[in-house]
């Protein structure tokens, strides 16, 4: 019987270079019209158990964490961890959208930046960017989208430092935002990294930074409610370029109290069979109800990555000689 470790190894072997194996008919389609697997809160696999609660959390959470750390901290960890695979393992598994929530620790005199989800990570942002670069160098035809978000506690000086690190590490692998990101174009130019950045001032100063990528976050505790939300967003119409449909459930205080022995992982794993059905019904492309990036929690489970990649088989690009009307009906 195949165990979890063997399953992950097999999955990594299959999906580590999936972009390079796409049929040539998809090489001229912009990445925002393809189906791309993503991980929600990518870096929570290395949250620091001894970390203070982040500066972004409510005063009540900070107070309870200080007064009853032995009770509150384990609860925080159970509901904050959304991934168990490392960033390299996620990339090997086929993930091509990374959700980075970046923060600077309060009262930390250094320039070190960390990732955050209620508490801070043990690793720094700079170390992870180098790790991604090392992976890209051994996968020259794969492209990764990095969404830099939240920026808890970042000053103007720290933003300058972060952008300088991104540019120093990735250099010519960074794709400028004026490039139409088709695989053929990116391969020809040697670009492998698209960085979206949720800070307008920095965005205006650096052509290597892309605008924030919209994230459809349902903020739901039930799978049925989440799917209803995602279908409502589809009816309103997809954004023109990159966007994320988040299939991640979100706990609230009431849910935690009703499920004292629960965790985000249990909550997620129960929902995956139903979300799998929804994923398989989706279709990538430029039309109103099409999807682009689908991001989830615990991405190593239930063939999530494989199911998203396989949606690209539904794309039928028009032949050059087809009329405009033919284009409209081609997908």
From TrEMBL:
Example GO biological process: lipid metabolic process
InterPro entries: PI-PLC_domain (IPR051057), PLC-like_Pdiesterase_TIM-brl (IPR017946), PLCXD1/2/3 (IPR042158)
Classification via Pfam families: PI-PLC_X
Family matches, as CDD domains: PI-PLCXD1c (cd08616)
GO MF assignments: phosphoric diester hydrolase activity
Residue stretches in coiled coil: none
Name this protein carries in UniProt: Phosphatidylinositol specific phospholipase C X domain containing 1
């Amino acid at each position: 019987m195949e165990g979890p470790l063997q399953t992950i190894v097999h999955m990594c072997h299959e999906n580590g270079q999936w972009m390079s194996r796409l049929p040539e008919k998809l090489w001229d389609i912009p990445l925002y019209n393809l189906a791309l697997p993503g991980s929600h809160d990518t870096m929570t696999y290395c949250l620091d158990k001894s970390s203070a609660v982040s500066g972004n959390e409510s005063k009540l959470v900070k107070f309870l964490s200080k007064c009853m750390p032995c009770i509150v901290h384990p609860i925080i960890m159970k509901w904050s961890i959304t991934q168990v695979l490392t960033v390299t393992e996620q990339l090997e598994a086929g993930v091509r959208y990374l959700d980075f929530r970046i923060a600077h620790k309060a009262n930390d005199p250094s320039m070190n930046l960390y990732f955050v989800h209620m508490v801070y990570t043990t690793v720094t942002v700079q170390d992870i960017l180098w790790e991604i670069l090392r992976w890209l160098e051994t996968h020259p035809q794969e492209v990764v989208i990095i969404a830099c978000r939240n920026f808890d506690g970042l000053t103007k000086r720290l933003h300058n430092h972060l952008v300088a690190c991104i540019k120093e590490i990735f250099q010519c692998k960074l794709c400028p935002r004026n490039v139409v990101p088709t695989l053929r174009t990116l391969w020809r130019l040697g670009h492998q990294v698209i960085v979206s950045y949720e800070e307008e001032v920095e965005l205006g100063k650096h052509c290597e930074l892309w605008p924030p990528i919209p994230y459809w976050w349902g903020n739901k505790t039930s799978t049925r409610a989440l799917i209803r939300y995602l279908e409502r967003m589809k009816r309103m119409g997809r954004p023109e370029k990159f966007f994320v449909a988040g299939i991640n459930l979100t706990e609230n205080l009431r849910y935690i109290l009703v499920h004292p022995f629960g965790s985000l992982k249990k909550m997620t794993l129960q929902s995956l069979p139903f979300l799998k059905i929804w994923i398989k019904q989706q279709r990538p492309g430029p039309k109103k109800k099409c999807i682009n990036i689908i991001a989830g929690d615990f991405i190593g489970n239930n063939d999530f990555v494989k199911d998203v990649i396989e949606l690209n088989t539904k794309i039928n690009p028009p032949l050059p000689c087809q009329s405009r009307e033919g284009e409209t009906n081609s997908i």
